[in-house]
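#lab-general

N.A. 3:47 PM
ok so I finally got the sequence cleaned up, no stray characters, all 390 residues accounted for. can someone with queue access submit it? mine expired

B.Y. 3:52 PM
send it over

N.A. 3:53 PM
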Amino acid sequence: MASIVPMIPDPGFGVYVHWPFCLSKCPYCDFNSHVRRGGVDEPRFLSAIQAELKHRAALTPGRAVRSIFFGGGTPSLMAPETVAAIIETIGKLWKLDPKAEITLEANPTSVEAGRFRGYRQAGVNRVSLGVQAMNDVDLKMLGRMHTAEEAFRALDIATATFDRASFDLIYARPGQTPEVWARELTEALARAPEHLSLYQLTIEPDTMFEQLYRAKKLRIPDVETARALWDVTQELTEKAGMPAYEISNHAKPGGESRHNLIYWRYGEYVGVGPGAHGRILTPKGARRAQATEPHPEMWLTVVETEGFGLVEDETLSTEAQGDEFLLMGLRLTEGIDPARFQALTGKRFEASRVADLIAHGMVEYTRQGRIRVTSEGFPVLDAVVADLAA
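B.Y. 4:20 PM
back already:
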């Protein structure tokens, strides 16, 4: 008798647009972001983004776009008319779901908050604010260009303007204790609309913070304190009805980022703009990993010459797909479907490894038969993924 392959839900298809420019470079940031004091030729970059969208649409015909995400850099430095033109182009090239989530990342300066109504008219229905800290001393230390009061005002404007809103905070900052963080997080939860992204500060290579850290001019909480800060985060967000649905993201039921869920559920997405990444499926079901030229002006030249800015476009092996599926999916509290892993890789998890991880309290099975990481496993997620993938 033939075996029955379980139906695997479609995670969806999304479009990511990278705007790489910022007013200043934050000392902790290792993203592909750049400062241009002389200004940016926005119409020229818009034309290049539209050219790349046409190129990707030819590779992904017939898809229905479930979400669009403007990331950066600082997309709120774009004129609302530029955002509108990009959304309009996407709608012409693919079928745009009438209920599509369209997110724009924004800094909460008063200047950028003044553009919110224009973005709403352009079609944006969700905004994600980079607040990062709720006091002026730490905002200055983090290199942010807004004050706490500006951030609160911008958040009020955002919640009144858009259907959905979120903001980011960074914790485990220098000198931060669990008690201090608990007070700040409590205030944040009182202001949070439906979604919070809470990231532990890490020292990334080639950043100003790395230089300060190596020179012993910057100290961050030790491992024990960082774990205590993590525990406070989980406890307070759970109590407030905004539990983690992903390792760093918290939401009220239904408030999850639909675009990011496409990534974490290992769906299909195209990325355009300097340094953008994508994962698309070929007609035969193979998964292609794509990445564009990261340097903005070089990307612009390549797109204007070739019609697209891809510098990487490779078909992933089944092993690589399995590794990515685990890295992304195990970040979610819903966990992963072992049947999907088997469909991607052609192999099952080694029962003894799963049993050992369960015995050590790192993972567990849900009632639906999914494997998910426990609260004890999340702080050592990379090790759990490596063990399962071995």
